[in-house]
Amino acid sequence: xxxxxxFSNMYPSHxxxxxxxxxxxxxxxxxxxxxxxxxxxxxxxxxxxxxLKKYFTWFVKAMVHMLTKKSEVSLTHSHxxxxxxxxxxxxxxxxxxxxxITVHGGDIDKxxxxxxxxxxxxxxxxxxxxxxxxxxxxLKLDVVERFGVKEKHVHVMSMGVNTEVFKPxxxxxxxxxxxxxxxxxxxxxxxxxxxxxxxxDLIEAFKMVEEDHPDAVLHMIGSSKDEGFxxxxxEHLSEMKxxxxxxxxxxxxxxxxxxxxxxxxxxxxHHEGFGLVALEAMAVGTTVVGxxxxxxxxxxxxxxxxxxxxxNPASLANGLKQALEQPSEDRKxxxxxIVAEHTYDVITERLVEIYSAVSKEGKK
Length: 364
Hints:
It contains 15 helices and twelve strands.
């Protein structure tokens, strides 16, 4: 394989260091293994009128890149089916470049459901891909049954976890470094501050947890760009009067410390393609409580974590209480086994095998 070009509508920048960080992490690990990887991506999460301009500029850059590099590039890899996958589809039809698509969840759960046109584009983009990677088992069912992709072309594979960053750290050390009290029960949420992440459910659930654990505190780390939701959240917090705090996204090393400092990591999402941050928490060794949706159902099943009902604050509260009151070494060992299956080295090896197969097929 000569070169690989990665297209993504999410990629981090100095100003937005966590925007699509999982894509950059994968790219950097591929490069560390000797692959020549080009990246044509959007590194700005802006919306509104500015979004149209950034997408147009990105599209032009991608077209110019494929036109000038078509003899050097073996294949393209798009992250998210729409709109990104459309670039790879065009690259195959015009420049003869085979392509791989990674489906992350929202691109078929939400984006494809917006209208018939996007659903149709999603379908033919997936069906024309030389390989489709899905980050969870449930997404595989959707891709095969709903979008008509041949099962032999679909590979279930997460984005992987960086075990050099997300690794066990003594709780006392983590709390000392972060200036957190040693005598509190800390529940941690990390993710975008949006309603779909189940944050309002979490606030109600934590109120119930405080009744039995008055020493508990809830910390939330995540982007607060949805002003409407943040206003709703503030009102909810004021009404519930719980011991909670929020801060904007942090570098991954800092997030790892926060996870290590927590007694429980919680992900109460209403839908979740895979739940990479839950896997990162498992790698640190912190108990994970998550909703029984999407990839979390598989990731936390078999006692690797604690699964609770989505949209159900009472169920979530019970799960949090169980994690606080009944720590389990067996659960920790099961989680460690799952993490071992998702290390960067394991994922990169599988990814390179897919690239090699696609590249060979493209030469026929």
